[in-house]
Amino acid sequence: MGTVTRTARGSRPDYLASAIFIGLGVLVLWSSQELPFGSAAMMGPGYLPVLVGSLVIILGVVIGLLGLWQQAEPIGAVQLRPLVILLASVGGFALAAEYAGFIVAAAGLVLFGSMADRDWRLREVLISSVVLTLFGLVVFIFGLDVQMPVGPF
């Protein structure tokens, strides 16, 4: 008889992503358990967190199940440069939004956040920055009426 070889299955990055999504969803559900839920017609303060937390858990389960059918793949080494740049960009957005306004903060977020990719191109980043800033301005400032200064003026 021949030897039986067993092929390793399961994508480790998918399993990790699945665990993170499920953990975050459970954390949201746990932290919003004392908020009144309400109904679809009369939403309470707990309605959206429960809905979003449940969807995040479902997404985590789907990613984990899809990872079962993937070829075995190890988790690569953590790259600190992109992680630090993205965290600094989001922190910079939070600070700049208060003092310089949404337009400057959103444009800076896209510009500095794009530096996490070693192959970024200035022209593409500038176009993305303008488009995403305008989109955010329309949706958040004008559409949702978020109380934030638009500019430094």
Would you kindly provide a written description of the structure presented here, covering whatever features stand out?
This protein is mainly α and 153 residues long. Helix content is 63%, strand content 0%. It has five helices and no strands. It has helices spanning 12-31, 47-68, 80-99, 102-113, 122-143. Helix 3 (80-99) runs antiparallel to helix 4 and helix 4 (102-113) packs antiparallel against helix 5 (122-143). The longest helix is centred in the middle third of the chain and has 22 residues, at 47-68. It is flat and about 55 Å long. The model has no long low-confidence stretch (mean pLDDT 88).
Please sum up the structure shown.
The protein has helices spanning 12-31, 47-68, 80-99, 102-113, 122-143. It is mainly alpha-helical.
